[in-house]
Protein backbone atom coordinates (compact mmCIF):
# COMPACT_ATOMS: atom_id res chain seq x y z
CA UNK A 1 0.00 0.00 0.00
CA UNK A 2 2.83 2.36 0.92
CA UNK A 3 4.52 1.93 -2.46
CA UNK A 4 1.35 1.84 -4.55
CA UNK A 5 0.18 5.14 -3.04
CA UNK A 6 3.11 6.86 -4.76
CA UNK A 7 1.54 6.26 -8.15
CA UNK A 8 -1.31 8.46 -7.00
CA UNK A 9 -1.00 12.09 -5.86
CA UNK A 10 -0.76 10.78 -2.26
CA UNK A 11 2.86 11.37 -1.31
CA UNK A 12 1.71 13.04 1.91
CA UNK A 13 -0.14 9.84 2.92
CA UNK A 14 2.98 7.78 2.22
CA UNK A 15 5.05 10.16 4.34
CA UNK A 16 2.53 9.91 7.15
CA UNK A 17 2.69 6.09 7.06
CA UNK A 18 6.49 6.07 7.11
CA UNK A 19 6.64 8.39 10.10
CA UNK A 20 4.56 5.89 12.08
CA UNK A 21 6.14 2.76 10.55
CA UNK A 22 9.73 3.67 9.53
CA UNK A 23 10.60 0.03 8.76
CA UNK A 24 8.41 0.27 5.65
CA UNK A 25 10.99 2.60 4.07
CA UNK A 26 13.34 -0.26 3.18
CA UNK A 27 10.86 -3.12 2.76
CA UNK A 28 10.49 -4.45 -0.79
CA UNK A 29 7.16 -5.17 -2.45
CA UNK A 30 6.30 -8.28 -4.49
CA UNK A 31 8.44 -6.97 -7.37
CA UNK A 32 11.45 -6.43 -5.15
CA UNK A 33 11.08 -2.65 -5.26
CA UNK A 34 11.48 -0.21 -2.41
CA UNK A 35 9.95 3.26 -2.35
CA UNK A 36 12.94 4.84 -4.10
CA UNK A 37 12.49 2.45 -7.04
CA UNK A 38 9.06 3.90 -7.69
CA UNK A 39 10.14 7.50 -7.14
CA UNK A 40 13.09 7.11 -9.52
CA UNK A 41 10.59 6.40 -12.32
CA UNK A 42 8.30 9.35 -11.49
CA UNK A 43 10.00 12.56 -12.70
CA UNK A 44 6.63 14.34 -12.57
CA UNK A 45 6.80 14.12 -8.75
CA UNK A 46 9.83 16.43 -8.67
CA UNK A 47 10.42 20.04 -9.64
CA UNK A 48 13.11 19.07 -12.16
CA UNK A 49 10.53 17.07 -14.10
CA UNK A 50 8.13 19.96 -14.70
CA UNK A 51 7.95 22.00 -17.88
CA UNK A 52 6.11 25.06 -16.62
CA UNK A 53 5.87 28.31 -18.54
CA UNK A 54 7.35 31.58 -17.32
CA UNK A 55 4.33 32.77 -15.33
CA UNK A 56 3.56 29.35 -13.86
CA UNK A 57 7.17 29.06 -12.73
CA UNK A 58 6.92 32.45 -11.00
CA UNK A 59 3.72 31.36 -9.23
CA UNK A 60 5.34 28.02 -8.32
CA UNK A 61 8.19 29.79 -6.51
CA UNK A 62 5.90 32.33 -4.82
CA UNK A 63 3.02 30.17 -3.62
CA UNK A 64 3.49 28.95 -0.02
CA UNK A 65 3.34 25.22 0.63
CA UNK A 66 1.69 25.49 4.02
CA UNK A 67 -1.27 27.86 3.97
CA UNK A 68 -2.05 29.29 7.37
CA UNK A 69 -5.62 30.08 8.29
CA UNK A 70 -4.78 33.79 8.38
CA UNK A 71 -3.30 33.83 4.88
CA UNK A 72 -6.48 35.10 3.24
CA UNK A 73 -4.83 36.35 0.05
CA UNK A 74 -3.56 32.95 -1.15
CA UNK A 75 -6.72 31.22 0.08
CA UNK A 76 -8.83 33.63 -1.96
CA UNK A 77 -6.60 33.30 -5.02
CA UNK A 78 -6.91 29.51 -4.93
CA UNK A 79 -10.69 29.83 -5.09
CA UNK A 80 -10.76 32.55 -7.75
CA UNK A 81 -7.98 31.10 -9.92
CA UNK A 82 -8.13 27.27 -10.03
CA UNK A 83 -4.78 27.04 -11.85
CA UNK A 84 -3.04 28.50 -8.78
CA UNK A 85 -4.45 25.67 -6.68
CA UNK A 86 -3.14 23.14 -9.21
CA UNK A 87 0.32 24.73 -9.09
CA UNK A 88 0.29 24.69 -5.28
CA UNK A 89 -0.78 21.03 -5.26
CA UNK A 90 2.10 20.27 -7.64
CA UNK A 91 4.57 22.07 -5.39
CA UNK A 92 3.17 20.29 -2.34
CA UNK A 93 3.66 16.92 -4.03
CA UNK A 94 7.22 17.89 -4.98
CA UNK A 95 8.05 18.86 -1.40
CA UNK A 96 6.70 15.59 0.00
CA UNK A 97 8.57 13.60 -2.66
CA UNK A 98 11.87 15.19 -1.58
CA UNK A 99 11.03 14.53 2.08
CA UNK A 100 10.30 10.90 1.19
CA UNK A 101 13.66 10.49 -0.53
CA UNK A 102 15.48 12.01 2.46
CA UNK A 103 13.58 9.84 4.93
CA UNK A 104 14.10 6.60 2.98
CA UNK A 105 17.78 7.41 2.43
CA UNK A 106 18.30 8.01 6.14
CA UNK A 107 16.63 4.68 6.93
CA UNK A 108 18.62 2.90 4.21
CA UNK A 109 21.89 4.04 5.77
CA UNK A 110 21.36 1.30 8.38
CA UNK A 111 21.27 -1.48 5.74
CA UNK A 112 24.06 -4.02 5.48
CA UNK A 113 26.16 -4.13 2.30
CA UNK A 114 24.17 -6.93 0.66
CA UNK A 115 20.79 -5.24 1.24
CA UNK A 116 22.19 -1.91 0.08
CA UNK A 117 23.54 -3.41 -3.13
CA UNK A 118 20.27 -5.16 -3.95
CA UNK A 119 18.14 -2.10 -3.18
CA UNK A 120 20.18 0.66 -4.80
CA UNK A 121 22.53 -0.80 -7.40
CA UNK A 122 20.90 -4.01 -8.60
CA UNK A 123 17.46 -2.38 -8.55
CA UNK A 124 18.68 0.35 -10.92
CA UNK A 125 17.53 3.28 -8.78
CA UNK A 126 20.49 5.37 -9.92
CA UNK A 127 20.00 4.38 -13.57
CA UNK A 128 16.29 5.23 -13.54
CA UNK A 129 16.81 8.54 -11.73
CA UNK A 130 19.65 9.54 -14.06
CA UNK A 131 17.87 8.63 -17.29
CA UNK A 132 14.73 10.42 -16.03
CA UNK A 133 16.68 13.50 -14.96
CA UNK A 134 15.54 13.49 -11.32
CA UNK A 135 18.27 15.73 -9.89
CA UNK A 136 16.70 15.99 -6.44
CA UNK A 137 16.76 12.23 -5.86
CA UNK A 138 20.34 11.90 -7.09
CA UNK A 139 21.53 14.83 -4.97
CA UNK A 140 20.13 13.27 -1.80
CA UNK A 141 21.39 9.77 -2.64
CA UNK A 142 24.90 11.06 -3.34
CA UNK A 143 24.82 13.00 -0.07
CA UNK A 144 23.90 9.94 1.99
CA UNK A 145 25.88 7.43 -0.09
CA UNK A 146 28.81 9.17 -1.90
CA UNK A 147 30.04 5.87 -3.39
CA UNK A 148 26.88 5.61 -5.50
CA UNK A 149 28.34 8.18 -7.87
CA UNK A 150 30.75 5.47 -9.06
CA UNK A 151 27.89 3.09 -9.89
CA UNK A 152 28.48 1.29 -13.19
CA UNK A 153 25.43 -0.11 -14.96
CA UNK A 154 26.21 -2.99 -17.38
CA UNK A 155 25.71 -1.98 -21.04
CA UNK A 156 24.89 1.58 -19.93
CA UNK A 157 28.02 2.93 -18.24
CA UNK A 158 28.62 5.34 -15.39
CA UNK A 159 26.26 8.09 -14.23
CA UNK A 160 27.92 10.70 -16.48
CA UNK A 161 27.59 8.48 -19.55
CA UNK A 162 23.93 7.69 -18.81
CA UNK A 163 23.18 11.40 -18.35
CA UNK A 164 24.84 12.26 -21.66
CA UNK A 165 23.10 9.43 -23.55
CA UNK A 166 19.70 10.59 -22.30
CA UNK A 167 20.49 14.31 -22.71
CA UNK A 168 19.92 15.06 -19.03
CA UNK A 169 21.69 18.41 -18.81
CA UNK A 170 20.73 19.08 -15.19
CA UNK A 171 22.13 15.74 -14.03
CA UNK A 172 25.35 16.41 -15.91
CA UNK A 173 25.47 19.87 -14.33
CA UNK A 174 25.13 18.24 -10.90
CA UNK A 175 28.17 16.08 -11.64
CA UNK A 176 30.11 19.11 -12.86
CA UNK A 177 29.74 20.65 -9.40
CA UNK A 178 32.14 17.89 -8.32
CA UNK A 179 34.92 18.72 -10.82
CA UNK A 180 37.46 16.06 -9.86
CA UNK A 181 34.89 13.26 -9.88
CA UNK A 182 33.36 14.58 -13.11
CA UNK A 183 36.76 14.68 -14.83
CA UNK A 184 37.35 11.04 -13.91
CA UNK A 185 33.87 9.96 -15.02
CA UNK A 186 34.06 11.63 -18.43
CA UNK A 187 37.38 9.90 -19.16
CA UNK A 188 35.69 6.48 -19.14
CA UNK A 189 35.03 4.65 -22.41
CA UNK A 190 32.00 2.44 -22.96
CA UNK A 191 31.93 -1.10 -24.39
CA UNK A 192 32.10 0.26 -27.96
CA UNK A 193 35.12 2.45 -27.16
CA UNK A 194 32.95 5.56 -27.29
CA UNK A 195 34.20 8.60 -25.38
CA UNK A 196 31.77 10.98 -23.68
CA UNK A 197 32.13 13.20 -26.75
CA UNK A 198 30.97 10.29 -28.93
CA UNK A 199 27.89 9.91 -26.73
CA UNK A 200 27.16 13.65 -26.84
CA UNK A 201 27.44 13.53 -30.63
CA UNK A 202 24.40 11.28 -30.96
CA UNK A 203 21.16 12.86 -32.10
CA UNK A 204 18.68 13.41 -29.27
CA UNK A 205 15.26 12.34 -30.52
CA UNK A 206 13.68 13.53 -27.27
CA UNK A 207 15.02 17.09 -27.64
CA UNK A 208 12.67 19.62 -26.06
CA UNK A 209 10.32 21.49 -28.34
CA UNK A 210 12.32 24.10 -30.25
CA UNK A 211 10.98 26.36 -32.99
CA UNK A 212 12.68 25.45 -36.23
CA UNK A 213 15.19 22.79 -37.22
CA UNK A 214 17.96 25.42 -37.33
CA UNK A 215 17.68 26.11 -33.62
CA UNK A 216 17.43 22.42 -32.80
CA UNK A 217 20.71 22.05 -34.70
CA UNK A 218 22.12 24.95 -32.70
CA UNK A 219 21.10 23.28 -29.44
CA UNK A 220 22.69 19.99 -30.52
CA UNK A 221 25.95 21.76 -31.35
CA UNK A 222 25.96 23.70 -28.08
CA UNK A 223 25.51 20.48 -26.10
CA UNK A 224 28.25 18.69 -28.04
CA UNK A 225 30.70 21.59 -27.65
CA UNK A 226 30.10 21.88 -23.89
CA UNK A 227 30.66 18.15 -23.28
CA UNK A 228 33.70 18.21 -25.57
CA UNK A 229 35.24 20.99 -23.43
CA UNK A 230 35.03 18.75 -20.36
CA UNK A 231 36.38 15.71 -22.16
CA UNK A 232 40.13 15.09 -22.45
CA UNK A 233 41.67 17.03 -25.40
CA UNK A 234 43.21 13.84 -26.79
CA UNK A 235 39.73 12.28 -27.04
CA UNK A 236 38.98 14.52 -30.03
CA UNK A 237 41.01 12.19 -32.21
CA UNK A 238 39.99 8.94 -30.50
CA UNK A 239 38.03 6.57 -32.75
CA UNK A 240 35.37 4.15 -31.59
CA UNK A 241 34.87 0.57 -32.78
CA UNK A 242 33.38 1.91 -36.02
CA UNK A 243 36.58 3.86 -36.68
CA UNK A 244 34.96 7.28 -36.27
CA UNK A 245 35.90 10.30 -34.19
CA UNK A 246 33.27 12.14 -32.13
CA UNK A 247 32.93 14.92 -34.73
CA UNK A 248 32.47 12.37 -37.52
CA UNK A 249 29.72 10.71 -35.48
CA UNK A 250 28.06 14.11 -34.96
CA UNK A 251 28.09 14.92 -38.68
CA UNK A 252 26.67 11.51 -39.58
CA UNK A 253 23.95 11.58 -36.90
CA UNK A 254 22.84 15.13 -37.78
CA UNK A 255 22.99 14.94 -41.56
CA UNK A 256 19.21 15.09 -41.97
CA UNK A 257 18.79 17.76 -39.29
CA UNK A 258 21.44 19.89 -41.02
CA UNK A 259 19.51 19.70 -44.28
CA UNK A 260 16.25 20.54 -42.51
CA UNK A 261 17.96 23.46 -40.78
CA UNK A 262 19.23 24.79 -44.12
CA UNK A 263 15.76 24.61 -45.67
CA UNK A 264 14.13 26.20 -42.60
CA UNK A 265 16.50 29.19 -42.62
CA UNK A 266 16.22 29.60 -46.40
CA UNK A 267 12.41 29.49 -46.32
CA UNK A 268 12.29 31.96 -43.42
CA UNK A 269 14.77 34.28 -45.15
CA UNK A 270 12.87 34.19 -48.45
CA UNK A 271 9.57 35.02 -46.72
CA UNK A 272 11.12 37.88 -44.77
CA UNK A 273 12.90 39.19 -47.88
CA UNK A 274 9.57 39.44 -49.68
CA UNK A 275 8.08 41.54 -46.86
CA UNK A 276 11.22 43.70 -46.61
CA UNK A 277 11.17 44.33 -50.38
CA UNK A 278 7.52 45.42 -50.28
CA UNK A 279 8.17 47.79 -47.38
CA UNK A 280 11.25 49.27 -49.09
CA UNK A 281 9.23 49.85 -52.28
CA UNK A 282 6.38 51.54 -50.39
CA UNK A 283 8.74 53.67 -48.28
CA UNK A 284 10.69 54.84 -51.35
CA UNK A 285 7.49 55.70 -53.24
CA UNK A 286 6.11 57.57 -50.22
CA UNK A 287 9.32 59.62 -49.95
CA UNK A 288 8.97 60.81 -53.56
CA UNK A 289 5.23 61.52 -53.48
CA UNK A 290 4.86 63.31 -50.13
CA UNK A 291 1.35 63.75 -48.66
CA UNK A 292 -0.36 66.95 -49.82
CA UNK A 293 2.12 67.47 -52.65
CA UNK A 294 4.71 70.23 -53.13
CA UNK A 295 4.57 73.98 -53.67
CA UNK A 296 4.67 74.42 -57.47
CA UNK A 297 6.84 77.54 -57.28
CA UNK A 298 9.52 76.40 -54.84
CA UNK A 299 9.03 72.62 -54.83
CA UNK A 300 8.78 72.64 -51.04
CA UNK A 301 6.26 70.22 -49.42
CA UNK A 302 3.05 72.00 -48.45
CA UNK A 303 3.00 70.43 -44.94
CA UNK A 304 6.70 71.13 -44.30
CA UNK A 305 6.04 73.15 -41.12
CA UNK A 306 3.55 70.63 -39.76
CA UNK A 307 4.84 68.49 -36.86
CA UNK A 308 2.96 65.49 -38.24
CA UNK A 309 4.86 65.87 -41.50
CA UNK A 310 8.19 65.59 -39.68
CA UNK A 311 6.93 62.42 -38.00
CA UNK A 312 6.08 61.09 -41.45
CA UNK A 313 9.51 61.96 -42.90
CA UNK A 314 11.50 60.44 -40.03
CA UNK A 315 9.43 57.25 -39.83
CA UNK A 316 9.43 56.80 -43.62
CA UNK A 317 13.22 57.20 -43.72
CA UNK A 318 13.62 54.68 -40.89
CA UNK A 319 11.28 52.27 -42.68
CA UNK A 320 13.35 52.52 -45.86
CA UNK A 321 16.72 52.13 -44.15
CA UNK A 322 15.67 49.28 -41.84
CA UNK A 323 13.91 47.36 -44.63
CA UNK A 324 16.98 47.68 -46.85
CA UNK A 325 19.19 46.54 -43.97
CA UNK A 326 16.88 43.58 -43.38
CA UNK A 327 16.96 42.76 -47.09
CA UNK A 328 20.77 42.73 -47.15
CA UNK A 329 20.99 40.59 -44.00
CA UNK A 330 18.62 37.95 -45.37
CA UNK A 331 20.52 38.02 -48.67
CA UNK A 332 23.73 37.32 -46.73
CA UNK A 333 22.00 34.38 -45.02
CA UNK A 334 20.99 32.87 -48.37
CA UNK A 335 24.59 33.15 -49.56
CA UNK A 336 26.03 31.49 -46.42
CA UNK A 337 27.90 28.18 -46.66
CA UNK A 338 25.64 26.47 -44.07
CA UNK A 339 28.38 24.46 -42.38
CA UNK A 340 27.59 22.80 -39.05
CA UNK A 341 29.58 25.38 -37.04
CA UNK A 342 27.63 28.26 -38.63
CA UNK A 343 24.49 27.16 -36.80
CA UNK A 344 26.01 27.95 -33.39
CA UNK A 345 26.30 31.75 -33.69
CA UNK A 346 26.80 33.08 -37.24
CA UNK A 347 23.45 32.13 -38.81
CA UNK A 348 21.28 32.75 -35.70
CA UNK A 349 22.89 36.19 -35.23
CA UNK A 350 22.09 37.15 -38.82
CA UNK A 351 18.54 35.89 -38.47
CA UNK A 352 18.07 37.87 -35.24
CA UNK A 353 19.44 41.04 -36.89
CA UNK A 354 17.25 40.54 -39.94
CA UNK A 355 14.07 40.00 -37.92
CA UNK A 356 14.84 42.98 -35.67
CA UNK A 357 15.36 45.22 -38.71
CA UNK A 358 12.17 43.92 -40.29
CA UNK A 359 10.19 44.59 -37.12
CA UNK A 360 11.48 48.19 -37.04
CA UNK A 361 10.52 48.54 -40.70
CA UNK A 362 6.97 47.30 -40.05
CA UNK A 363 6.50 49.63 -37.06
CA UNK A 364 7.90 52.73 -38.78
CA UNK A 365 5.88 52.02 -41.94
CA UNK A 366 2.66 52.00 -39.94
CA UNK A 367 3.72 55.20 -38.14
CA UNK A 368 4.42 56.87 -41.49
CA UNK A 369 1.07 55.69 -42.85
CA UNK A 370 -0.76 56.99 -39.77
CA UNK A 371 1.02 60.35 -39.95
CA UNK A 372 0.27 60.75 -43.68
CA UNK A 373 -3.40 59.91 -43.23
CA UNK A 374 -3.70 62.24 -40.24
CA UNK A 375 -2.28 65.17 -42.23
CA UNK A 376 -4.87 64.70 -44.95
CA UNK A 377 -7.99 64.46 -42.77
CA UNK A 378 -7.26 66.26 -39.49
CA UNK A 379 -8.40 69.65 -40.85
CA UNK A 380 -11.90 68.30 -41.31
CA UNK A 381 -11.99 65.69 -38.53
CA UNK A 382 -9.99 66.79 -35.47
CA UNK A 383 -10.22 63.42 -33.70
CA UNK A 384 -9.15 61.41 -36.76
CA UNK A 385 -5.55 60.74 -35.58
CA UNK A 386 -6.80 58.71 -32.60
CA UNK A 387 -8.61 55.89 -34.48
CA UNK A 388 -5.91 55.96 -37.16
CA UNK A 389 -3.22 55.38 -34.53
CA UNK A 390 -5.24 52.57 -32.95
CA UNK A 391 -5.80 50.84 -36.29
CA UNK A 392 -2.11 51.20 -37.15
CA UNK A 393 -1.29 49.29 -33.96
CA UNK A 394 -3.24 46.21 -35.13
CA UNK A 395 -0.69 44.88 -37.68
CA UNK A 396 2.14 45.76 -35.28
CA UNK A 397 0.45 43.76 -32.52
CA UNK A 398 -0.17 40.82 -34.87
CA UNK A 399 3.44 40.80 -36.07
CA UNK A 400 4.64 40.97 -32.46
CA UNK A 401 2.35 38.14 -31.35
CA UNK A 402 3.39 35.88 -34.22
CA UNK A 403 7.14 36.57 -34.17
CA UNK A 404 7.99 37.69 -30.63
CA UNK A 405 8.13 34.19 -29.12
CA UNK A 406 10.44 33.02 -31.93
CA UNK A 407 12.61 36.12 -31.53
CA UNK A 408 12.92 35.70 -27.75
CA UNK A 409 13.74 32.01 -28.15
CA UNK A 410 16.43 32.88 -30.69
CA UNK A 411 17.93 35.48 -28.34
CA UNK A 412 17.94 33.07 -25.39
CA UNK A 413 19.34 30.23 -27.46
CA UNK A 414 22.12 32.35 -29.00
CA UNK A 415 23.08 34.76 -26.22
CA UNK A 416 21.50 33.15 -23.18
CA UNK A 417 24.15 30.40 -22.92
CA UNK A 418 21.66 27.56 -22.42
CA UNK A 419 24.45 25.28 -21.17
CA UNK A 420 26.38 27.93 -19.20
CA UNK A 421 25.46 26.22 -15.92
CA UNK A 422 27.60 23.26 -17.03
CA UNK A 423 30.65 25.50 -17.32
CA UNK A 424 29.95 26.94 -13.87
TrEMBL record:
GO terms for cellular component: membrane. The keyword Signal does not apply. It comes from the Eukaryota. Pfam families: PGG. Keywords: Membrane, Transmembrane, Transmembrane helix. Residues 263-375 form the PGG domain. The chain crosses the membrane at residues 272-290, 310-334, 355-377, 383-408. This is PGG domain-containing protein. It comes from Pisum sativum.
Amino acid sequence: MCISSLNLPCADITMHLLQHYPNLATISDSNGSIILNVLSKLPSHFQSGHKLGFWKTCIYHCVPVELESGNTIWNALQILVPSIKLIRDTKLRDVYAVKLVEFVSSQASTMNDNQFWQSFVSADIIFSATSSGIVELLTICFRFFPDLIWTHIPNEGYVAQIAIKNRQEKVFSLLCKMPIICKLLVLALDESQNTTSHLAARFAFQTKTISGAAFQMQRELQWFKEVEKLDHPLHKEVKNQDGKTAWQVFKQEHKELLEEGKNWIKDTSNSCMLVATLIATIAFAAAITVPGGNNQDKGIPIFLKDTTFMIFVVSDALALFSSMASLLVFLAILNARFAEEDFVVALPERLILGLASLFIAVVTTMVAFGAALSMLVKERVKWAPIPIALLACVPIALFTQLQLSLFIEMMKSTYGSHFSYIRK
